[in-house]
Amino acid sequence: MKKHYAVWLVAAGLSSSVSACGRVAATEKDGNAPVVDPGFALATELNATSPHPSLGDQAEVVGRLVGAWDVEYTHFAKDGKTTRRTGEFIVGWVMDGRAIQILWIVDPSGTRKDREVYTNLHWLDPKSRAWRSAFVDPEHGSVARFTGGPVGHDRFVLETQDFGSTLARWSANDIRPDSFVWRDEGSSDGGKTWKLQAEYQMKRRTAPAAARQSSLPSAFPPHGPVSGPG
User: Fold this and answer.
1) Could you write out the DSSP letters of every residue in the chain?
2) pLDDT tens digits, residue range 126-155?
3) CATH of domain 8-226
């Protein structure tokens, strides 16, 4: 990605991830008033427990993604090579429920020792009633802007041209209580035809976090910052 927008979102994404992972620290003062560690103040205020009433039915489909998911990332290169990685997909309401945020985590693999972390912020445009989204890759300093919304009751679709000359489409498909499929597709003919570039199998996490491996999964597609997570 070549465009650089909304640097503030990086800080919001990292703070939100702390909140999503349940690491907000609070202690009791004088037996009743909770005291929040200054280091977690932003995460505490950013988090929301439910969508804002102004979103109405628009919150229904995307709201079904809220929670923590284990991910199997599969990317399809132009030369036919398939790359598979594992990771994590964490979703929650933020900013008084007026927006929803996704934290992508990709587990270390190959020679890379560090996990990869990316974030999406989705919000409903009050005028157009279309969903807007910003995808942030802080490691490479890149941002992509998307527009889209729900399609039916089990699909959420976003499109962008911020990845160059190719139109990109990201979609959450077959959304069920415990699973869904995320697809990253590209079109070189203005959306007439689409080519599958990556597919992520999402399974809602049911096991306690402590039972997982010490390395957390993440969210950016294996083919790097020119497209989606992993």
Assistant:
1) ------THHHHHHHHHHHHHTT---EEEETTTEEEE-GGGHHHHHHB-SS--GGGGGGHHHHHTT-EEEEEEEEEE-TTS-EEEEEEEEEEEEETTTTEEEEEEEE---TT--S-EEEEEEEEE-TTT--EEEEEEETTTTEEEEEEEEE-TTS-EEEEESTTSSSEEEEEEES--SSEEEEEEEEESSTTSS-EEEEEEEEEE--S-GGGS-SSPPB-S-TTGGGSS--
2) 999 999 999 999 999 999 999 999 999 999
3) 2.40.128.20
